């Protein structure tokens, strides 16, 4: 009876085992850890099947395996039986399948997931999301570029799934989205407690070319370089350093973008409030050159107050020179206040006004008629430019080069660099012009020679040359020419050959031309004048006396 019962029980168990379905390969099954040996966990997955799993598959990245004998775990059945008769199972793949199910649900619900960064790859990092590996792009690590991600490695933290593809096994996550969301909440709270015009303390977090970002306790504000100080600041690092605590004023809050503009100089006294009183027009002050441009130089009178010295106000003599060749950055200079525009916060300064006008100095020290010496700086079609004291030039016009030569001919005798002497003929300080004369060095010979001579005067000249058209004569070194028709009143006597070189001849002055420096003289005019005078003295037209009688009487009187 007992044997019969045992057979029935065995038969029942056998039928049960035949009726029991073996789990499908590629599915997740539950198992129990029955032993741990040689770095592996032996797991009974039921169905008379056991498998081995490496202990490292039970460990999270950077952590020790958390597994003990008797623990129930889920594993992935890869193969029911291998060559050794064991089931091929994987804890890691089971975790992955479990993770994908969980992550897909989170992705659908737009929920955050927890993970840990455990590796670096090209373009970003790898993140363990509890069994599934995701890619974290470098741009999604933080709201600002991260230079050192070391402190974030292995740290469990929330992430946002940006996209996932189970078929390809791709998951992309973002840490930045979480930070921006919490940051937005924090910014909204902080901004709600701020008001424009409020003075607050902040910490300098970052410095750029155009300003600095200041942390106001969870929200950053921009402190622009132009709002750091009333004076010119070339770079924010001149007055700020990262980590420094500064007091700033809230200038503007944009409620929509949550952007905050900050200022430091607004908490300081505006030096422009006292500019008009401290710097009256035409007053002279010491300043420092802070910047040089093509159109002038900026000079700092005091911190926060700068003025522009326009290139036209830099030098009396250097007209077409770059300002950088007159002054240099950081140079201490004296300037004169020319104009103040309080509304535009501009001060016009002059550098040359602190020095005397060299043309005025020259006019005082070199009155007209003074002899000067200088180097020929330039030769033009209308004259010579001569370098004079005080770095100024004087001009000798073509007409002032020579008494005897045409200006176009006389200028050929000069070369650039020649040292010449001249006489100051005129100084125009307003037009900044100095007129010089080289021909006046020896005086005006023509003026000296004809000083007492005027039209109608009778002078004695010396014949110096006989020509077909007349004779050349000389008077006190001045040459004149008497044409054939002026040699005599009598046509028969109008012969040049009747004169000889060296003859002394009395002539009448018909013209004194100071411009051409010529005397017009005539023998004929003298004779006609003498005849007229004789008629007036010794006879009249109705006396009946002949011309011969009158002239004879006149000549007789002269002989007596």
From TrEMBL:
InterPro entries hit by this protein: NA-bd_OB-fold (IPR012340), Ribos_protein_bS1-like (IPR050437), Ribosomal_bS1 (IPR000110), Ribosomal_protein_S1-like (IPR035104), S1_domain (IPR003029)
Keyword Ribonucleoprotein: yes
Family, per entry: Belongs to the bacterial ribosomal protein bS1 family.
Residues of the S1 motif domain: 26-92, 110-176, 197-265, 282-352, 369-439, 456-524
GO cellular component, one term: cytosolic small ribosomal subunit
Keyword Ubl conjugation listed: no
Organism: Thalassococcus profundi
Protein role: Binds mRNA; thus facilitating recognition of the initiation point. It is needed to translate mRNA with a short Shine-Dalgarno (SD) purine-rich sequence.
Keywords assigned: Repeat, Ribonucleoprotein, Ribosomal protein, RNA-binding
Example of a GO biological process term: translation
CDD domains membership: S1_RPS1_repeat_ec1_hs1 (cd05687), S1_RPS1_repeat_ec2_hs2 (cd04465), S1_RPS1_repeat_ec3 (cd05688), S1_RPS1_repeat_ec6 (cd05691)
Protein name per Swiss-Prot or TrEMBL: 30S ribosomal protein S1
PROSITE patterns documented for this protein: S1
Pfam families: S1
Gene Ontology terms, MF aspect: mRNA binding; structural constituent of ribosome
